[in-house]
Amino acid sequence: MMVRPGIGPQPRDERVTLKHGAGGRAMRMLIEETLAAGFLDGSTDEIGLAALDDGAALLIGDRWLVVTTDSHVIHPIFFPGGDIGRLAIAGTVNDLAVMGATEVLGLTSAMVIEEGFLHSDLERIQHSMQEACREAGAKIVTGDTKVMGRGELDGIIINTTGVALADAVVSDAGLSSGDRILLTGPIGDHGIALMAARRGLGLEGDLRSDVAPLNGLIRRALDTAKGAITAMKDPTRGGLASALTEMAEKSQVGIVIEDAAVPVTPVVRSAAEILGLDPFHIANEGVAVIGVRPDAADAVLAAVRAHSLGQSCAIIGTCTDEHPKRLILDTGIGRRLVTEPEGEPLPRIC
Amino acid sequence: MPDESVRTSANELKFRDPSQARALADRLSGLCEEIAREPISVMHVCGTHEQAIAKYGLRTILPKSLDLIMGPGCPVCVTDMPEVDEAVVLAEDGALIATYGDMLRVPGTAKSLADAQAEGARVEVVYSAAQAVELARSMQQEVVFFASGFETTAVATAAIALQDDLPPNLSILSAHKYVPPAMEIVAQIPATQVEGFLAAGHAATITGWGIFEPLAERYKIPVVVAGFEPLDILAGLVRLVELVKDGTPAVDNMYPRCVTREGNRVAQEQMWRVFRTVGGRWRGIADVPDGNLRLRPEYAHLDARVRFEIDIRRLWQLAPSALAEKCICGAIMSGLASPSDCELFGKECDPENPVGACMVSSEGTCKIWYQYGGRPDL
User: Fold this and answer.
1) Which of A260-296 are b and which e, b meaning 16 or more Cβ less than 10 Å from the residue's Cβ?
2) Substitution target from A199, A257, A326, A336 for chain B, most B beta carbons within 10 A
């Protein structure tokens, strides 16, 4: 029989696990302690790796060059409401947009494809990328293609990089006490639709991913209230809980969310309750969190609601100088803390 | 126009109504003021209650003078190390262990089932006792159903034991626990000073609320059966504090839509046909006379403890975790301490790397506090 020394103190997390890719605390630790080591110079006005923001912002003259990159892996590749191609465009366009860079100069597309992948599927993906680019007013300007042997990856990986110019950048760290928090649409649609597609949950109702480029909607919000938007983020992996926690921590404020104000569709709410999932932990690909100065909140709300992707936009909370760095949920009955998901409730969804 | 359909809130459900919740909380405050001393200590004995209390933030609206203590309410957490050791040994000796997911990472003396699995043993997660039967039917290998839970799940295990034509390679390793004797033990712990119990509605669905009458009488302590929505819990607390205030050691049922005085007689009859109570250790708490449910001799052919020679002593040569000695799960489950009193909580011990069983189970107090922030002053 194999004998080993008990369960007692052993080096923790000596290997990368799926939780390190889940968008929560474990992933941030891996990036801060290992992947970004040596590049964490925080002494500049520019937004670089040290900020761990959605992308980078580099000063060119008096304008900002915003750059972001994202590798997309998803199962299934085609899902209700979209596919990996639409996701690859929307994900990168949205990362630029939430930094205030809504006019995309160009996108790159690097594909790693598994031997045996169907040509017809590639064409479908390419068509989706074109369609999403048209919606976003963006275009792919360069790319790269690699094919690997069967079994060396699962289907296809698409990396997209985006560059854009902006007169002003919005970080995810600019919240201050009193700012209102807007959420542009219902949460949970993407993650629950993916789970239903994978497992055939047999849930009634229209479950579709919300994946969509948000740069048009965000431009409208920015133009409505010049300088009044203090922070933005798209709540993808880790869900609303991770996005708001990160914003609260970086901005050194507390955020109080009203549970009853958070838009969630009835089908997602029911599915989450049945499956024991918290909608706050589920990934989204077509909504943004926007922090707004209190006097501009109603105007931004009206502007976003007038956009086709923002009809369910709601003011869901307020920043406070009490409980800094904490995310607090007012359940309508009492209050509690909201914590980030430890691992991924649903692996590989974006 | 905003889409109104997405504004539907879970709070619209009847038993989550915020205005009624506030009315109940006000009533509770009024009662505590009338009692005019503190703390008024009441205990719930159910992880599902703690889940709901934390999820809806109920502790932030309870009167400061009311101390709502968490008791030994998680069957996974009170599963004793030797019980886990038995399953580990059986797995290492070549049986397939079928068990509920929460049991995988519960630490034994030297290792958990998950550790054994990582070393090559076969462990399968099942969602029901019936699934363990199907698993055994689909293979030649010996399948041992490592059964845990209070009387609510013991009934499901009894139901499979009573089936005819069970596959011959199936046996049962029972770690089932029986709650009422544990409540007596806790009622006797002087430091706890429990003045009333909030009893678990789902277990009472099986046992009936009448089962608590001897306890109430013997220890002169009121017991109120409550359900699991926020209004159920608040209404249960209101009734319990009323009984405390009046000095009435009665049993009351605030979950009448599910619970009757006599309970589910068919389920009880099945459970007692298959199981008998024996004394034994509840992890971290005490030896609880009649606290364990074990298979009756008539079901020896299904009893893994009879069918196999289980030598758990070989695990004892392995070093136990050094951290485990600092774990205060026992004090937490007895209501003597909170997770925030534990030096490991949130540091060396978290849901990914649990030291104590309370951090493993979704019903464990430490896991729930880790998830919802415990008893924050918000």
Assistant:
1) bbbbbbebbbbbbeebebbbbbbbbbbbbbbbbbeeb
2) A336
Phi (first) and psi of residue A10, to 5 degrees = -130, 155
Residue with tokens 């589920």: A282
Question: How confident is the model over B10-55, as pLDDT tens digits?
Answer: 445 689 999 999 999 999 999 999 999 989 999 998 888 998 999 9
Q: Is residue B300 part of a domain?
A: yes
Please give the CATH superfamily to which domain A53-166 belongs.
PurM-like, N-terminal domain (3.30.1330.10)
- For chain B, where are the alpha helices, taking DSSP H only? 18-35, 47-55, 81-92, 113-118, 129-137, 151-161, 179-188, 201-207, 213-219, 230-246, 265-274, 304-307, 313-316, 329-333, 365-372
Strand order in the sheet with B251-253: B66-70, B40-44, B196-200, B223-226, B251-253
- Whether residue A313 lies within 8 A of chain B, CB to CB, comes out as yes
The domain containing residue B65 runs over which residues? 20-70+190-253
What confidence tens digit (pLDDT) does each residue in B241-274 have?
A: 999 999 999 999 999 999 999 999 999 999 999 9
CA of residue A141 relative to chain centroid, distance? 24
Q: Which residues 300-329 of B have a C-beta within 8 angstroms of A?
A: 314, 317-324
Q: Which among B92, B371, B378 is the nearest to A339, CB-wise?
A: B371
Reduced to 3 states (helix: H, G, I; strand: E, B; else coil), residue B199 is strand
| Phi, psi angles (nearest 5°) of residue A110 | -115, 120
Q: Which two tokens stand for residue B345?
A: 């909580």
- What's the gap in Å between the CA of B293 and the closest CA on chain A? 29
| Residue A116 Cα distances to A88, A144, A147, B326, angstroms | 21, 18, 10, 55
Q: Check whether residue B206 and residue B267 sit in a common domain.
A: no
